Amino acid sequence: MIAAGTPAPDFTLRDQDGEEVSLGSFKGGKVLLVFYPMDFSPVCSDQLSIYQEVKPEIEEKGVTVLGISVDHPYAHKAFQEKLGIDTPLLADFEPKGAVASAYGSYLDGLGFANRTLVLIDEEGTVAWAYESPNPGEFPGANIIFDALA
Amino acid sequence: MNAPLTSAPVPPIGPEDHVRGEGEELIVYADLGCPHCAVAWAEIAARPNRIAFRHFPVASKHPRSPALHAAAEAAGAQGGFFAMVDSLYADRGHVDDPHLWQRAEQLGLDLERFERDRRSAEVAARVRRDFESGIRAGVTSTPAVFP
Question: Which of A128, B33, B111, B128 has the most beta carbons within 10 angstroms of its beta carbon?
Fold first, then answer.
């Protein structure tokens, strides 16, 4: 997992609509990267649904939330619609898991990212990061608010 | 500005909680639109415990949940909280507004007051308060049961 104080590796990925999203475009604001294993899994569904419920409170603190998994934009679109969420979902699809790897979140041998939260400050530096003990658990939203306090 | 959502212990059962039964205390965070909760509730409600039910609607996953929790809270204002919860979990196939009115009538509630209450800001705030205490306690799925 990437360490706090590290410059956040820049990236450009496509979102659920196929639009390119670059981390650098958020400079001047805070970004919360939510790496998760895969669209449509039960735990990922719970995680993104719960975070959606408190997204206004996260944004109130000047933070943009971005979900990232190895899924294709088409899968992201369907997943977003199924869950009824509006959190942008970025496709770390090709080369597979390259961004997750850059953030130390990719699980070699499993082919997906572990659940990892990375808070990036206004200057593009990692301010805080948290990795779940295993992909079957996800950090409660309280953990995010603790980091933002 | 909303209430802080930083980590905090599960609040103990208080006078504003919806509580039923006698025995050791259980605090249950549940979503009235959640099928897993409906199955679990049949077992949890039968336990010989003093059970506090707390609202934890996840609207993005269960779009009708906010309306169902508001209905339970509005029923509670007329003494029918657990009757409405039991009713909603027992029959998950009838959760539109006309079904809620029918349930309210079957429970002997004043329908006009029920309608007014379930759409009120006070009821929404009451539901949200439970939800936020669950978030602060680290609830990540429902039902979440705390002894």
Answer: B33
Contact A149 B137 (CB under 8 A): no
**For residues B38 and A67, what is the distance between their CA atoms, to the nearest angstrom?**
30
What does the domain layout of chain A look like in residue ranges?
A: 12-148
Q: Which CATH number fits domain A12-148: 3.10.310.10, 3.40.30.10, 3.60.20.10, 3.40.640.10?
A: 3.40.30.10
Q: How many domains is chain B partitioned into structurally?
A: 1
Question: Closest Cα to residue B140, out of A22, A6, A53, A120?
Answer: A53
Which residues in A lie closer than 8 A to residue B137 (C-beta atoms)?
140, 142
ipTM, 2 dp: 0.90
Q: Residue B95: which of B76, B116, B74, B67 has the closest Cα?
A: B67
CA dihedral A5, A1, B139, B123 (to 10 degrees): 50
Residue whose structure tokens are 């009838």: B94
Average pLDDT score over residue span B129-144: 97
Task: Give per-residue pLDDT as tens, B8-47.
Answer: 999 999 999 999 999 999 999 999 999 999 999 999 999 9
CB contact under 8 A, B1 and A140: no
Q: Dihedral of the CA atoms B14, B16, B21, B22 (nearest 10)?
A: 20
